[in-house]
Amino acid sequence: MHCPFCRHTDSRVVDSRTSDDGCSIRRRRSCPTCGRRFTTVETASLTVVKRSGATEPFSREKVLVGVRKACQGRPVSEDALAVLSQRVEEAVRATGSAEIDAHDVGLAILGPLRELDEVAYLRFASVYRSFESLADFEAEIALLRAEHEPTGREPEAAGSGSG
């Protein structure tokens, strides 16, 4: 690590700590030549491979922007969006791969977004999955409805049964 003050090619690590979100390491360094101290932040790089084959660094902000568009006009707070984007990043990093397909990032978004707001989920899914007709929307809505329907069994009343 080059010293930012004198450009010496070496430095000594004085202290290391993980950051608040646990995704990076903050290191205090000291330059043996000029004696000044500086801080570096290290993160594991994660690259997204787009359909075109182009690559770009993963961006939690880009996830946030896309989900924010889907949630426009919906009763979803900025805090909820921030938590969702963090969950997506954690899920993507949990794969253990340094490169991930853009398609897999989209899949990682769909689950948490569905839990957050079903209308926003439909909006996002319609773009992500390239819905081309009403039938595509109807099929997705049918899946959502099927999840909300009771399984046919009545839950036992509280306090009933032998005791």
TrEMBL record:
GO molecular function terms noted in the UniProt entry: ATP binding; DNA binding; zinc ion binding
Keyword field: ATP-binding, DNA-binding, Metal-binding, Nucleotide-binding, Repressor, Transcription, Transcription regulation, Zinc, Zinc-finger
Residue intervals of every unnamed zinc finger in the record: 3-34
Function: Negatively regulates transcription of bacterial ribonucleotide reductase nrd genes and operons by binding to NrdR-boxes.
Gene behind the chain: nrdR
GO biological process, alphabetically ordered: negative regulation of DNA-templated transcription
Pfam family name, one: ATP-cone
Similarity annotation: Belongs to the NrdR family.
Required cofactor names: Zn(2+)
Cofactor binding annotation: Binds 1 zinc ion.
Organism: Vallicoccus soli
NCBIfam families with a match to the protein in the record: transcriptional regulator NrdR
Protein name in UniProt: Transcriptional repressor NrdR
